[in-house]
Amino acid sequence: MDFTLTKEELLIQKMARDFSNQSIQPHVERMEKENRTFEEIISGLADLDMFAMIIPEQFGGAGAGYISYVLALEQIARVACGPAFIISAHNLALSSIINFGTEEQKAKYLSKTARGEHIASFAFTESATGSDPKQLTTVAVKDGGGYVLNGAKRFISNASYPGPLVLFALDSESKKPTAFIVEKKCSGYSVSEPWKKLGWHGGDLVDIYLKDVKIPAENVLGQLGNGYPILQYGMAYGKIGMNSIALGTTLAALEEGVKYAKEKTHRGEPIAKFQAIQLKVAELCALYESSRWLTYRLGFLAANNNDYKNFAKEAALAKFTVARNAQEAARLCLDIHGSYGLMEEYAASRIYRDAAMGPQIEGVLHLQEIIIASSVLS
Ligand SMILES: Cc1cc2nc3c(=O)[nH]c(=O)nc-3n(C[C@H](O)[C@H](O)[C@H](O)COP(=O)(O)OP(=O)(O)OC[C@H]3O[C@@H](n4cnc5c(N)ncnc54)[C@H](O)[C@@H]3O)c2cc1C
Q1: Domain limits at 151?
Q2: pLDDT tens column, 161-208
Q3: Distance between Cα 100 and ligand 1 center (Å)
Q4: CATH at 80
Q5: Is 362 a catalytic residue?
Q6: Based on the domain organization, do 47 and 145 belong to the same domain?
Q7: What percent of the chain has pLDDT over 90?
Q8: Do 18 and 59 have their domain in common?
Q9: pTM of the full predicted structure?
Q10: Residues near 102 by beta carbon (within 8 Å), at least 6 away in sequence
């Protein structure tokens, strides 16, 4: 397999890195404190087509594909995971619309999301379930030519922004999970105050309340009662973003660890001279390289593979490894910093908090092990 990046891919990677250094980095401290991504960052990301990457050109997208997406998101997450997660959750929802939507649904919902005027969401989790679709309680009752939705969704990303929301509910006809496209901010739609998360500050996370939300029948995504495959597909393709964020976090841990090892001195010599520090740096390099190839390969598979079942297993395998590597890398980075790494003034403490997020989201790590084992043992 040849992973030499094309000129275009290198350019996209560089653009994302430059933008992150110049236009996100100066705001990270304030973003951490205020827990929001500023409008100028969203519009700058939109100008770089970061919301349009996986959307086909015929629907107003950039058609850049999953490899470029991985490269760009890694660089953004290296500086700040909040904005990276906004893009990742947006693309998780869009992957479902692109794969299961009708031509009319794609024409209606993709072009504004490509421009970043609308930001997409995906709502499965409820207070009683984050891993088991059989426990859904949100309902969609047939009403004339459409459906009336009632229920509440927990921990939904991007739900405060206008745009399409792929929402899972039990429909009154099939009595099974069905996916619907809901326009956020419609009548009967409301959200909670933002959750105060441990990490990924700046990423929008709220609960959603649906009170007699009316949607037309043409907003059913896929077939009635067929929500589960859409959920599985979204969770698998969503992991491309999750892995890219964990990879960016690992890169940040490596860069910050190396920087500090060269800057901090003891008896006039940098601590990089200590073999104990060198061993940690070597381990950081190994963690980053193994995560890098797994994540780039996942982008490659998404761009070139139509075998969905195999992709779901590969995505689970990558997430299981890359999310844990990020945690280990963050711990090593903290170790290199000694007590300074515990201080908010140092990036190492943010990286440590950010690395804790991935293993618990979009399928906890145990579920990844179950997906891997059931694929191998079937
Ligand atoms: C920042 C953030 C963003 C999020 N964004 C979204 C979003 O946009 N849309 C959305 O729908 N959700 C979102 N979520 C929710 C998230 O995906 C779920 O919370 C997550 O899947 C875990 O579900 P849970 O918290 O209910 O944990 P549970 O499923 O209750 O798991 C709790 C524990 O039980 C274990 N466990 C559960 N089931 C099994 C099993 N079958 N076998 C073995 N062990 C098991 C787990 O490993 C875990 O240790 C987000 C969460 C966060 C924190």
Answers
A1: 121-224
A2: 999 999 999 999 999 999 999 999 999 999 999 999 999 999 999 999
A3: 24
A4: 1.10.540.10
A5: yes
A6: no
A7: 93
A8: yes
A9: 0.96
A10: 218
Would you say residue 310 has pLDDT above 90?
Answer: no
Across all residues in the chain, what is the average pLDDT?
95
* 310 lies in the same domain as 232: yes
Which residue from 217, 110, 220, 216 is spatially nearest to 169, judged by alpha carbons? 220
The answer to whether residue 209 sits within a structural domain is: yes
- d(Cα 5, Cα 376) in Å, to the nearest integer? 31
Q: Which residues contact 68 (CB under 8 A, 6 or more apart)?
A: 8, 9, 12, 13, 53
Per-residue confidence at 1, pLDDT binned at 50, 70, 90? low
Inside any domain, residue 2? no
From 197, 207, 362, 369, the mutation candidate for ligand 1 (largest count of ligand atoms within 8 A of CB) is 362
Note whether 215 and 127 are same-domain residues: yes
Q: 143 - beta bridge partners? A: 146
Q: What is the rounded distance in angstroms from the CA atom of residue 224 to the CA atom of residue 285?
A: 48
Q: Are residues 95 and 68 in the same domain?
A: yes
Q: How far is the CA of 235 from the centre of ligand 1 (A)?
A: 12
- Domain boundary among the residues 72, 90, 114 is at 114
Q: Is residue 186 within 6 Å of ligand 1 at its C-beta?
A: no
359 within ligand 1 shell (Cβ under 6 A)? no
Final residue of a structural domain among 61, 90, 114:
114
Q: What residues have CB less than 8 Å from 125, skipping those under 6 apart?
A: 153, 154, 155, 156
The verdict on the CB of residue 156 being under 6 Å from ligand 1 is yes
